[in-house]
UniProtKB/TrEMBL annotation:
The keyword Ligase applies. NCBIfam families: PRK06187.1. Transmembrane segments: none annotated. Residues 18-382 form the AMP-dependent synthetase/ligase domain. Gene3D superfamilies: 3.30.300.30, N-terminal domain of ligase-like (3.40.50.12780). The keyword Ligase applies. GO terms for molecular function: ligase activity. This is Acyl-CoA synthetase (AMP-forming)/AMP-acid ligase II. It comes from the Bacteria. Residues 432-507 form the AMP-binding enzyme C-terminal domain. Keywords: Ligase.
Length: 525
């Protein structure tokens, strides 16, 4: 294997080549009873990249993947990164019509899918007219697309020996679709450089050492988890992958595998710490606990540090369009520097301003929108020039997060401009659900807000106004929603009203709904 040349371009494939050259026999990724060394991963990713090129995947052509966590996800991610293609990871929790939109909008040409998830595309396969080939991970024999092959056959096929010479680090690398506040998700185009620099930032701000063993649980279709694949290569570490969140299994794995580091969203941390026999497990190998995806309460931070006595605590804040981390806070800053409510200071290489609607910097301590510049900033929203132009007004990325900054440069999140709900680390946009509810023949009006939830941080509540003479139960509203939208986005709490509160211009007053002060305006449902 030739020594990688990292001097010219910051390519994700070069990060893997670096680790494979430095630590070829070290386990890079492990899942259940399987594992890949860096050399083995490099060989399989390189083979897959050549196979993609042989199947006419050229520059900027899209490869979709509908996977749960596992080694196949890792292989496909790095294989695509070594080709000139662009990976489109799809949230497996979405319902078929949501998946259809993403695959068609992103122009996916080849789709990799797990056998377990075939039922997600079978109802929509006739609508996926741009897909030329479906690659199934598993032993499925039932093929309902004219061009379906099994994943293992790729590695039995002969491939070309041609090399890619023209890749640039500002080429598109992945497209991550974010839930849309206007009812349609937007595809954030992230480049090789975006994810590479974010990986370097993780290494800089974290306390993981070379060879760290990390436990990965959140789904890899999220950029926060996906970015860990890159930083793992940079640290020549080992990632042990879990397919889903099982608190007892996490503790067992920490003890058995002597895990050093772990990232969980606050809701996961909270559930993990509720395991009754937690103290029976040996957890002293953990030296770094990380959280993000939602604001982590101080009491939860204290419990994490009390439980994992040898570990430092790190909190990250950001968003998909910034690849994703923009600020970092350590446990020492949080607790000992009295910055518990903060999300920390700006990340290395990320420039931050807090501005008003005219992009004037607001005074220290006052609330404004946090905006960003830097090499982790996305390239664009795919095929959406209007949204791209709006997001990049004045040459800065506009987050739509309202924050304040103190005199020491620590940032505090105040609110979200578009009422986003964060439930268990998942982003949920009320308007998307409201549009679904409006399609019900008995519903006249609907408004969706997030309400506090001890388990998930926030949960979804829908206020419903029925058409005159219509009858509908809360259970029927929830059941209807679940057929139209991913289950995690459905409302968990329903309240029926005679009318929604509105201001003089007719805008629904969600501040009133959140305050739950509609004492005299309730209707039995």
């Amino acid at each position: 294997m030739s020594i990688p040349n990292l001097a010219h371009q910051l390519l994700i494939g070069e990060a893997l080549k670096y680790a494979a050259h430095r630590s070829p026999e070290r386990t890079a990724f492990a899942f259940e009873n399987e594992s890949l060394t860096y050399r083995g991963l490099m060989e399989r990713a390189d083979h897959l990249a050549r196979w993609l090129r042989d199947h006419e995947i050229g520059k900027d052509e899209k490869i979709g993947c509908l996977f749960k966590n596992g080694l196949s996800f890792v292989e496909v991610y790095f294989g695509v990164s070594l080709s000139e293609g662009v990976l489109v990871p799809v949230n497996f929790r979405l319902v078929p019509n949501e998946i259809e939109y993403i695959l068609n909008h992103s122009d996916v040409k080849i789709l990799f899918i797990e056998e377990e998830l075939l039922s997600q595309i079978e109802p929509i396969i006739a609508e996926l007219t741009k897909i030329e080939l479906v690659v199934i991970v598993g032993t499925a024999q039932k093929h309902f697309h004219k061009n379906m092959i099994n994943y293992d056959s790729i590695y039995n096929a002969a491939v070309s020996i041609s090399e890619i010479k023209g890749q640039k680090d500002d080429d598109a690398h992945v497209i991550i679709y974010t839930s849309g506040t206007t009812g349609r998700p937007k595809g954030a185009v992230l480049t090789h450089k975006n994810l590479y620099i974010n990986g370097m930032n993780k290494c800089y701000h974290g306390q993981n050492k070379r060879g760290t063993k990390l436990l990965l649980i959140p789904p890899l279709f999220h950029v926060a988890a996906l970015s860990l694949l890159v930083s793992n290569c940079m640290m020549e570490g080992t990632i042990v992958i879990h397919r889903d969140f099982q608190p007892e299994k996490i503790l067992q794995t920490i003890e058995k595998e002597e895990i050093n580091s772990m990232f969980l969203v606050p809701a996961m941390w909270n559930m993990l710490l509720q395991v009754p026999n937690l103290q029976q497990y040996r957890l002293d190998s953990i030296n770094s606990c990380s959280t993000g995806g939602a604001i982590c309460p101080l009491e939860l931070k204290k419990k994490i540090m009390d439980t994992f006595e040898n570990a430092g605590l790190h909190e990250a804040f950001g968003q998909t369009e910034m690849s994703p981390s923009t600020t970092y806070l350590s446990g020492e800053e949080s607790i000992h520097a009295n910055k518990a409510e903060s999300v920390g200071k700006p990340s290395l290489n990320v420039r931050v301003r807090v501005v008003d609607d005219e992009m004037n910097d607001v005074p220290v301590g006052e609330v404004g929108e946090i905006i960003y510049q830097g090499p982790t900033m996305m390239k664009e929203y795919y095929k959406n020039p209007e949204a791209t132009a709006e997001a990049f007004k004045g040459g800065w990325f506009h987050s739509e997060d309202l924050v304040r900054m103190d005199e020491e440069g620590y940032i505090y999140v105040v609110d979200r401009k578009k009422d986003m709900i964060i439930s268990g680390g998942e982003n949920i946009y009320p308007k998307e659900l409201e549009e679904v509810l409006y399609t019900h023949p008995s519903i006249l009006e609907a408004a969706v807000v997030g309400i506090p939830d001890p388990k998930w941080g926030e949960t979804v509540k829908a206020y419903i106004v029925l058409k005159k003479g219509a009858q509908l139960s809360a259970e029927e509203v929830i059941s209807f929603s679940q057929t139209k939208i991913a289950s995690y986005k459905k409302p968990r709490v329903i309240e029926f009203l005679e009318a929604l509160p509105r201001n003089a211009t007719g805008k629904v007053l969600k501040t009133v709904l959140r305050a739950d002060v509609l004492i005299n305006n309730r209707k039995e449902g």
